[in-house]
Amino acid sequence: MIQLKKITGNKKIYLDLLLLADPEEKAIDKYINDSEVFSLIENEKVLGQCAVTEIDKHKCEIKNIAINEDIHKKGYGRKFINLICDYYKDKYTSLLVGTADAGVEFYEKCGFKISHRIKNFFIDNYDEEIFDNGIQCVDMIYLEKKIK
C-alpha cells in the first residue's frame, strides 16, 4: 500500500532524492526548514520525497518533489501529488508548484493550470546551468491547482 509519511526530525534525511529535483543543496537549504517534508512509502521503501511551504493562509507551494529515478513514468508522481492535495485540502484552497518547461506537461496532467512565470529564475539563482530532459532551465513556470 502506498502512503504518505511526514518527516519529523532531519528533513534532509533523503537529500539524494531532494537533489533530483533541486540540484544545489544551498538552494534546498533556503526552504527546507520552513517546509513540511513528506516521503512516499510503499512496503516500507521510500519512493519519493516532497517539501511543501505555506505561502499564506490560502495557499501552499510544493518547493521540491522527486521520485526515485528507477520508477519514473509509473504513476508514482501523480499519486504523490494526489496524496499531498488530500493532505492539505482542509487547510488551503490551492497548491502551487514551480517548474521549468520540461515539467509543465506533467503538472497539467495532474490538474494544475499555469499561473505565472519568473523570467531567468534558474539563470539568476543557480551557480551552474541546469538541464531537464536535455533542455536548459531558464524561467520558473508556476502552476496552481485548486484543492478545496
From TrEMBL:
One family name in Pfam for this protein: Acetyltransf_1
Boundaries of every N-acetyltransferase domain copy: 2-148
PROSITE patterns named among the record's database cross-references: GNAT (PS51186)
Residues in coiled coil: none
Single GO MF descriptor: acyltransferase activity, transferring groups other than amino-acyl groups
Protein name, as recorded: N-acetyltransferase domain-containing protein
Lineage: Bacteria, Fusobacteriati, Fusobacteriota, Fusobacteriia, Fusobacteriales
SUPFAM superfamilies given in the database record: Acyl-CoA N-acyltransferases (Nat)
